[in-house]
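TA notes. Do not distribute before section.
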Amino acid sequence: MDESADLIELKSHFAFGKNWESYAKLVNDSQVEQAIAGLQRLLGGDLRGKRFVDVGCGSGVHSLAALRLGATEVVALDIDPASVATTRHLLEKHAAGEHWSTHEMSVFDLEPDGLGPYDVVYSWGVLHHTGNLHRALRAAGALVAPGGQFIFALYYRTPLCRFWKLEKRWYSAASPVAQARARSIYVGLHRMLYPLKYSGSFNDFIANYSKRRGMDYYHDVHDWLGGWPYESISAAETEQLMQQLGLRRIRAFGRKRKTVGLFGVGCNEYVYGRE
């Protein structure tokens, strides 16, 4: 784990917010419904009567999903001002008059006696990009109210994690032209090797991508290649840390077979609760 203090500052991060801002223009009712279904799957129910905080709100689509599932209050926060603005715009358009707020702040500035506690603390694919994963998990987990849930997704560890860490550090600082070339190489290789492992066409895979990932393929490629800072974690290490925070596992969804991580590293999804 890189303990450099600079990594937790926005200036050292990939421009996630700009990518989400671009993607949000493509969000339609179908993608909102997919976000609702994905959140409901993790919750195991709805959010009626519950306070919900979206740590690292990105496009805001999951904050909107939480409102659609009956949350009495939704708080969306992100360190990136572009993500906060994108989320605010989405909620103003689709949830005007409902009880929500947006905040530009780092997970490391969260205080349970400030914004929290919450019935549901949600952070999907975010905390491994903060610059200090363990500290971020502790900060977010501390917001969980008694009887509440901590729902999060984190990159699982693969043999190529070290390579991807170096690649992301380069890509996030590269010129737009160099980034475009890298994306072209990545997509070309993915298209060429796809038939060796999967049935069906690569074009169908791209067309149905948002149903599985919550972002269209090409925005996700940019997000993956540029996702710096970057850390990954095993399920066992996650379990140990959650036990230290007084949280017990309710359910988890993860990869059952080992993978090299040639075209990226997926996420394990976790739901932990506080007694």
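Switch to the second chain here.
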Amino acid sequence: MKRASLIIASALMFAAPVAQAADMALKAPPPAPAVDPWAGWYLGVNIGGSWGRAADTTTYGAPPGLFAATSSHLDGVIGGGQVGYNWHSNSWLFGLEADIQGSGERSSATTSLTNTILVPINGVFFPINITGNLTDNERLSWFGTLRARLGLLASPTWLFSVTGGLAYGEIQNNETFTVGPVTVLNNFNNTRAGWTVGGGVEGVVSGNWTAKLEYLYMDFGTITHTYPGLSIFNPLTLSSHVTDNVVRVGLNYHFH
């Protein structure tokens, strides 16, 4: 009897740590450390619209006289992609972002000027009116930016930011000038560098995905071209100052 009791007690002593180990194995593992949804690389796409402005001044002759000064809308749909990197500390975020955009922005302005000249015929001067007609078509066919971003997290999933840096793009000027039945065409393509500032709001949608709403103002500076005109309106000089306002929505995937 004593021998049986000793065997049972030994079995119970052996089973106790085994049961305890089994109980520990059934417990859930400790939670994984939280992933920062903002820090690191991201890649995304965007689409939006713009309302730009082409402020053009055309002069003629030497010394130059004013032919026309116009300001036309440079509007259209834009779309493209962006890539960036964020550094996150407490509620602050600093980042760098580059984007490239296709653009359907176009503008057009038509002006005319009539000058009177005196033509001598048999020693008598007769006034003759000469009218020049100018149509200026402009297009921003693509543009891109390289910007720094400074952001403040209003909550772990909402970011408000300001941004600024380099803007660049291709501006096309197509000039049609007519005097009477004669027309001359001049086309210019320019890749211009300027500057941009703006801001936006971005929020976590799900997992690694965020969505954003962003505004940018861009200034591409002044472009000047001198080209042949007609009759007394020769040469012609165009100075074009292009600015742009962009509003776009975007979707980013963050790599963690």
